[in-house]
Fold this sequence. Notes:
Elements: E1 5-9, H1 13-25, E2 29-33, H2 36-46, E3 50-54, H3 62-69, E4 77-82, H4 86-95, E5 99-103, H5 107-122, E6 131-134, E7 137-140, E8 145-148, E9 151-153, H6 157-167, E10 174-175, H7 176-184, H8 193-206, E11 214-219, E12 223-228
Parallel strand pairs: 1-2, 1-3, 3-4, 4-5
Antiparallel strand pairs: 6-7, 7-8, 8-9, 10-12, 11-12
Helix pairs in contact: 1-5, 2-3, 3-4, 6-7, 6-8
Amino acid sequence: MTVKTVLVVDDEQPIRELLTLYLTKEGFTVHEAADGAEALIKHQEFKPDIIILDIMMPVLDGLEVCRQIRKFSNIPIIMLTSRAEDEDRIMGLELGADDYVTKPFNPREVAARVKAVLRRLASPEKRPEAALNYSHLTIDMAEHTVTAFGHEIAFANKEMDLLWHLASHPGLVFSREQLLESVWGYSYCGDTRTVDTHIKRIRRKLDISGNSPWDIKTVWGIGYKFEVKK
């Protein structure tokens, strides 16, 4: 079995050491970078299978690193953010990051997300060939398109997967933990905010209002559901 390589990028040495120690124990080869410029050099040098990338760093921040890497590579990127950086999390997803983990984090959670992303890449699931059609809304997984009120809207992969999962089960309530397992491919490890952030982005892109014939409803204390209004 081929050993997978992880590039850990963070300007805080204790965080790099913690992740390196834990990921090495999990069987990964780990390289480190202390700032964004070094990250770009190490990416070219070692050709890692996945990058764990802090947002707030000197020289080049994580957002700029993500932006530059996405010009020539689809390597999976997991962003590290603080809980106060909601807009940065959203920007990271818009630039093409695959996921994020908030600080302080459990290294077990980071390892679980790394494994889940690499597992999906090794065994990609076949996307449904059919399309979902609701009033003024079409979700076509085969074509990777979402059309709402006559306008085609760009969706990132995980946004598309999450919307499809909810819309293909109208009326059913899914907990955040269930959505993490079904859409992201890993079990709950202590932080479900990635689900909330993706739901927020989907709602904003669809421009859901009180007049929409469908909605993504928050079921307080449980999770979310796709609701078709009568």
